[in-house]
TrEMBL record:
Belongs to the short-chain dehydrogenases/reductases (SDR) family. GO terms for molecular function: oxidoreductase activity, acting on the CH-OH group of donors, NAD or NADP as acceptor. Residues 4-188 form the Ketoreductase domain. Signal peptide: none annotated. InterPro entries: KR_dom, NAD(P)-bd_dom_sf, Sc_DH/Rdtase_CS, SDR_fam. Keywords: Oxidoreductase. Pfam families: adh_short. Transmembrane segments: none annotated. It comes from Hylemonella gracilis ATCC 19624. It comes from the Bacteria. This is Short-chain dehydrogenase.
Amino acid sequence: MNNKVVFITGATSGFGRATARRFAQAGWSLVLSGRRTDRLEELKKELAGQAAVHIATLDVRDADAVAAMVAALPAAFRPVRCLVNNAGLALAPIPAQKVVLKDWHTMIDTNVTGLVNVTHAVLPSLLETGAGASIVNLGSVAGSWPYPGGHVYGATKAFVQQFSYNLRCDLQGTGVRVTDIAPGMAETEFTLVRTGGDQAASDKLYRGTTPLTAEDIAEQIFYVATLPDHININRLEVMPTRQAWSAFAIDRDPA
Ligand SMILES: NC(=O)c1ccc[n+]([C@@H]2O[C@H](COP(=O)([O-])OP(=O)(O)OC[C@H]3O[C@@H](n4cnc5c(N)ncnc54)[C@H](OP(=O)(O)O)[C@@H]3O)[C@@H](O)[C@H]2O)c1
C-alpha cells in the first residue's frame, strides 16, 4: 500500500491544483487546502478514484487555524512525507510609492507569515517521516531578480529562499529535505489576482509568448520530492525559454 502523504497549500488553483493532480497520478494520499471550499470539493471529487483525499478550508495567515487543521489530520493522512508550501500571491504591480499599505501587508501575511505558520505546524509530522521527507517552498525568480512593481512581492520570495536554506541547516541529520523552487513567468490565476481581477491585463501578459504552465511546475515539484532520499535540490530556478533578464534601466537627462 502506498501511504505517502503530500500536504499542499493553495490547492484550489494554478501550481497547487496541478501538483495535487500529479501526486494523485502516482497514488500519493493528498491533504489539500485553500480558502475556496467549492474548488476543494470539486478537486476531491475529480481525484477520488485515484487517491485518498482530505480537504480543509484554510487561510494560511491564521496561525491558530493552521495548527488546529494539522492537529486534526485523520490518521490515514499522517505522517506527512512532502509539504508543498505553495499558497501565495502578488498584488499591486505598480510603483512602490503608489501602493496602498494593506497590499504590502497582505503579501507579507500570506507569503511569509502563512508559509512559516504551515511549516511550523507540519514540521513534527515531517520529522516523524524522517528520511525521504521534503519541504518544497514556492519562491520565485522575483526573490533574486528585481523588477519594477516587484517591491514587497520580490522581498517575500527572497525570504522564502533564505528561510529554505536556513531550515536545511537546522534539519541536518533528520533526513528532511528542503527546496526553494523559483519559477519565472507561468500562466495561472496569478496575474488575475495581482491585477485585482483584470482578465485583459492577464491575457496581455501571456499573449504572443510561451509561459510555463502549472503542469510544468507540478512536474518539477514531483521530481524534487521523489528523488532518492540522499539527494537535496537546494534551489531550482525555472524560466520559460522565451524569458530572460534585460538591461539595467538608466535614468537620463532629456536629449
Ligand atoms: N504564476 C507565476 O508566474 C509564479 C511565478 C513564481 C512563483 N509563483 C508562486 O507560486 C505560488 C502559486 O501561484 P500560482 O501561480 O499557482 O497562482 P494562483 O493560480 O493564483 O494560485 C494561488 C493559490 O494560493 C492560494 N492562496 C492565496 N492566498 C491564500 C491564503 N491566504 N490562504 C490559503 N491559500 C491562499 C489560492 O487559494 P485560495 O484563493 O482558494 O485561498 C490559490 O490556490 C505562489 O506562491 C506564487 O507566488 C507564481
